[in-house]
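A sample copied in:

***
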Amino acid sequence: MHDARDAEDKRLLEAKEHTQLLENYVYLVQEWVSLRVRKREAAEEVVQRVFLRLTGELAAGKTYTVPYRVVVWNVVNWTARGYEWTAKPDATLPDGWDAVAPDQLEEWEGEHDLGALIADLPDGDRRVLDLLYREGLAPAQVAERLDLNSNAVYQAAHRGHRRVAEQLGR
């Protein structure tokens, strides 16, 4: 699920499109902080500090060995650590509240879900693609596990790839 988000974050980091990268996290940071810091004024302060730190790191050219979403989550946790964790006095959700967060990648992720894309394939082709992509096995390992010769694995993978490409309209 996070693969598409991580790929987009990596692309934005490499292209130095830091504004867009940070804009993609505004809603999440606000939600994470509001869950941790219950006083509105304190939460707003934490959100500002989070983005100041992230902006400063990006401007300084800092690179990361973990996905950027992990960096953001850690900065939120570190920044919010010194603020009070108390229950909101009015902790009920308002009428008409919509729990769906805006997510630009959600539709793409749904359309490119591997499990859904290979679900209708014949059993043999589906098992081969499942082992190749979900478990990360090499074709020789797939052949051994399914008691097939390596040519049968390559043929099943080819058929599966062709059907998935057709589903995606390519």
User: Anything to note?
Assistant: The first helix runs from residue 2 to 14. The CA atoms of residues 37 and 85 lie 6 Å apart. The domain at 2-84 is CATH 1.10.1740 (Rna Polymerase Sigma Factor; Chain: A).
